[in-house]
Write a structure and sequence with these properties.
The structure is a homodimer of 140-residue chains. By secondary structure, chain A is α/β, with parallel strands linked by helices. Helix content of chain A is 23%, strand content 34%. In chain A, strand 6 and strand 7 form a beta hairpin. Chain A is globular, with a radius of gyration of 16 Å.
């Protein structure tokens, strides 16, 4: 198994609402308005929105609702950019779980939760490198 | 907010056990044996393993256990490669939720669940392009 992730699918209760949230953050998709799955090309991988009920069935798991032990992160190039993205998320209707602040690991981050309960940390980690194309690298 | 994901953190009950599972799949990390967070460079992003309890607290969410509406996928270049990765996952101790088979969307996929309940679809989608570096692209 190669060491990579190709796709992450976020289960949502209302695809149109979830799509509108990510579009309000500036994300673009080629999905048609009536499509029941929405794909966003996200660097070298894909982020998808799909019915949580169908995703649970397709994934062979029981769904009792709530959070499931996965948190997403969007790394940026400065603490100021963390605050700017957190403001965008607030305007798009996210719940703000943590405002941007210095972290225990020596960086700066905030955390928002999307309309379906999926948490996104917005982080500046001074030890990680973000290339012009947005790809993020651990220290060499 | 740029259209990309930098990091996904998988909350786990035992970091050493989870690390051993991903290492059995062939993944490599530079983490020290005693590190409480394990980072895997995964293409242009990072996959991390961390205590689910600490991750919940850090993410500002309540955790009642179980699945949370996110499913990962690892796309490969042929149906045969799906079956090969599924065999690797079985040998590494994954629960097999679905054996490789043709799918309703015109591809071929199987699904395994890691020791902490995180589902991974292993998929061949003939409409998506996988580059030599593993990056995956939607149709143009």
């Amino acid at each position: 198994m190669e060491q990579r992730l190709s796709l992450i699918t976020l289960g949502v209760s209302d695809v149109a609402r979830a799509r509108a949230f990510y579009e309000a953050l500036g994300w673009k998709t080629r999905a048609e308005p009536e499509d029941d799955v929405v794909f966003f090309q996200s660097g070298g991988m894909i982020v998808a929105l799909w019915s949580r009920e169908q995703l649970a069935e397709d994934s062979g798991v029981e769904d009792e609702g709530g959070w499931g032990g996965m948190t997403l992160a969007h790394n940026v190039r400065s603490p100021q950019e963390v605050d700017a993205v957190m403001d965008e998320a607030r305007r798009a209707g996210a719940r703000i779980a943590r405002e941007g602040a210095e972290t225990f690991w020596g960086g700066y981050s905030g955390l928002f939760v999307d309309p379906d309960g999926h948490p996104w940390e917005v982080a500046h980690n001074p030890r990680w490198t973000i290339a012009d194309d947005g790809s993020t690298r651990l220290p060499a």
